[in-house]
């Protein structure tokens, strides 16, 4: 199982200048992937900007959004943004997407919560059209350079529609940022949907989990704050799930490995860049 590093782009009031520092350090430490968290109505750095900054600060490490709230974007614009990130990175991007669940993230007029699943299905066709270099805007020009590829998509979510969409359109599934025991049913549902869709092989399965080794209380509070919109019970559950000791991190890694995950991404919960080296000493 590969081990990735989740950038703290959605820690409240993150220092944006630390993002490329984290990215470079994680690549040098040997992590497989750099991950990002997606939100709009929160004082962090957007996943597209974070991924672009990470691409510029690195050469070989993978880039992954876990997950980007695709329906809050106009499809044509997001497709071009993602193609640019993938291109400047040398085709290292995998896009993890979901439909979103918080109304204030849907800030563009006409792009509200209602119908977001259907909008995503429509936009998936738009993405592929743009990436193929088909003309946009009713004219004759494509939106992307020649050589743009179809970027692999991984889907999150826990509804039957999400699993079916993953099996139909994606290369894999990413679980929620919860203990392995709570995520296991969604992994099984994703694998079952894959088989039901007649796909060969197995979906790529990615787990994610929050960690903090330098300032446990700060890290837990940051996670609680991020999930506070779901209420105290859920926010406290998420904050309590932060792995904050070497033993807890090793246990989380082993648990996801036992579930058959292809990759497990450890998400930083503060913008202390020393977290990279602390984690690397434990997992490598």
TrEMBL record:
Alphabetic keyword roster: Flavoprotein, FMN, Monooxygenase, Oxidoreductase
Pfam hit, one: Bac_luciferase
Domain Luciferase-like positions: 13-227
Protein's UniProt keywords contain rRNA-binding: no
Signal peptide location: none
PANTHER family in alphabetical order: ALKANESULFONATE MONOOXYGENASE, ALKANESULFONATE MONOOXYGENASE-RELATED
Name of protein: LLM class flavin-dependent oxidoreductase
Species this chain originates from: Pseudonocardia xinjiangensis
Taxonomic path: Bacteria, Bacillati, Actinomycetota, Actinomycetes, Pseudonocardiales
